[in-house]
Design brief:
The chain has 452 residues and is mainly beta. It folds into two domains: 3-132, no CATH class; 138-449, Galactose-binding domain-like (Jelly Rolls). The protein has helices spanning 13-16, 56-79, 113-118, 259-265, and strands at residues 3-7, 17-19, 29-34, 43-53, 86-90, 98-109, 121-131, 134-140, 143-145, 148-150, 153-155, 169-173, 183-191, 199-207, 217-219, 227-230, 238-245, 250-257, 268-276, 286-292, 305-306, 310-311, 318-320, 324-326, 340-347, 353-365, 368-373, 383-387, 392-397, 400-402, 406-409, 413-414, 419-427, 439-449. Strands 8, 11, 13, 28, 29, 30, 32 and 34 form an eight-stranded antiparallel sheet that branches. Strands 2-1-5-6-7-4-3 form a seven-stranded antiparallel sheet. Strands 15, 16, 17, 19, 23, 24 and 26 form a seven-stranded antiparallel sheet that branches.
């Protein structure tokens, strides 16, 4: 028989759970009938039929416990107070507990309850609404990048091949995780630098049949329109210097994306993030991306797609542009995509010219994306925790909980049977994105199933 209990994951084990079947049942509980509902919806509503027999005091004590659980569920789900309440199931063929978060609960009596209660018996209906999934115990993940594999990876704010470990990503193989559904992920990002971490942008790329990392970096010095300048503190050891004529939109820099790159980019949504080698000058600078066929000049008027313009902030060293798909329309999987020219266009009002120093453009995946933003930053040696199971984001500093960041986006999950890459882009409190910003990352997951 599957063991059923209701409780939370915060209080000590001996007091956190009300056992309803096959366990240390409280006085007055004979057992519970539970038939899980099968559905494709995000939530399900089910009924636990709880049989009671005992003294009036024992029956009232069980009723009081169940009513208290109803109030705790409502308090947490509506007001965000207290702890989440879960239905815990331990199947007979699996000693690992499985948890499903309760979203609402009501306690009803069966017909004829008053007559039964007079004889020391009672049948209750505990009607619950829960998430339509059961999650297992938390397990650590092995993370990999060019520096190797382990339970912790050290990341930088760059992705080039100058040396092993110049990575802003890790990958996970999910084939052996044993999860039926996308598994909720808990990320722990520790600031190992010397100053607070203000902004953190994280995007995931999940692919069932692509073992190689997608090409997401366009180096400034690889654009023909710029002048390459070697610099040890630039991505790939160099940046590009461009001259921007003021008063009109200009095709500033361009890169050719061949069919192999576009096949890997797979028609997905990406946010191009510009990283400048020096902070942006004063003026109402605007940037956008245009796509055109190679062989045509990158001048205005020949574009196949043009993204909305985004205004830059004076003194800032990075700029996320409007998301776009690459290739920019749905593609036929049995036909190779045509090569494209990716052009960065810029506008500055006035007359004369400006000099812009572009380090690189990072194409951050938006398939599973979150932006952690803060006005105070993540303190040195503190850890930012993002937990999809708890649906919570918080900071641990000196073993104390605090809240330093606001998240915008989805929680992270690991689809079964795929390779998943997670990419990180960091910004310091000055609004700059130096390539040497360091973080350490750990991750855990929980197996998820819908059917017990």
């Amino acid at each position: 028989m599957t063991q059923i209990a209701i409780g939370n994951l915060i209080d000590p084990e001996e007091t956190a759970w009300l056992y309803l079947t096959d366990g240390p049942l409280p006085p007055g509980v004979l057992g519970t009938r539970y038939e899980p509902v099968t559905s494709s919806d995000e939530t399900v509503t089910e009924t636990l039929q709880i049989s009671l027999r005992g003294t009036p005091a024992e029956l009232r004590a069980v009723i009081a416990q169940l009513e208290a659980l109803c109030r705790q569920i409502e308090r947490y789900e509506v007001e965000g107070l207290g702890a989440a309440i879960y239905l815990r199931a331990i199947p007979t063929d699996n000693f690992e507990p499985l948890y499903s978060r309760l979203l609402h609960a009501e306690l009803h009596t069966m017909p004829g309850a008053l007559a039964l209660e007079e004889h020391g018996s009672l049948m209750l209906e505990f009607i619950l609404t829960r998430q339509n999934a059961f999650d297992g115990a938390e397990r650590p993940l092995t993370l990999s990048n060019s520096a190797g594999s382990g339970l912790t990876v050290a990341l930088k704010n760059r992705d080039d091949s100058l040396s092993a470990g110049n990575d802003n990503y890790f990958s996970v193989q999910t084939n052996a995780l044993g999860t039926d559904l996308p598994a909720p992920l808990r990320l722990q990002v520790t600031n190992t630098g010397s100053s607070p971490l203000a902004q953190l942008l994280v995007g995931a790329y999940h692919a069932p049949s692509r073992p190689d990392k997608p090409p997401l970096v366009l180096e400034g010095e690889h654009a023909d329109e710029g002048v390459e300048v070697p610099a040890s503190d630039a991505s790939n050891g160099a940046y590009a210097q461009f001259t921007l004529a003021q008063g009109a939109w200009q095709a500033l820099a361009s890169w050719q994306l061949d069919h192999n790159q576009l096949e890997t980019l797979d028609g997905r949504l990406y946010t191009p993030i510009l990283r400048f080698y020096t902070p942006l000058p004063a003026g109402l600078l605007q940037f956008r991306v245009a796509l055109s066929f190679p062989g045509l000049p990158p001048a205005l008027g020949t574009t196949l797609y043009q993204s909305p313009a985004v205004s830059a902030t004076e003194g800032q060293g990075y700029l996320p542009l409007a998301p776009l798909r690459l290739p920019f329309e749905a593609r036929l999987l049995n036909v190779q995509p045509s090569p494209l020219r990716f052009s960065l266009q810029a506008y500055a009002p006035g007359s004369g010219s400006l000099t812009l120093k572009l380090d690189d453009i990072f194409l951050l995946p938006q398939e599973n994306f979150t932006w952690f933003t803060s006005s105070v930053g993540l303190p040195v040696n503190a850890s930012l925790i993002d937990d999809a199971f708890l649906q919570k984001t918080y900071t641990l500093a000196n073993a104390k909980e605090m809240h330093t960041h606001h998240r915008i986006g989805d929680y992270f999950y690991l689809p079964p049977g795929e390779t998943s890459w997670f990419f990180f882009f960091q910004v310091n409190p000055e609004g700059l994105a130096p390539i040497d910003l360091p973080i350490n990352v750990k991750a855990w997951y929980r197996k998820r199933r819908r059917i017990l």
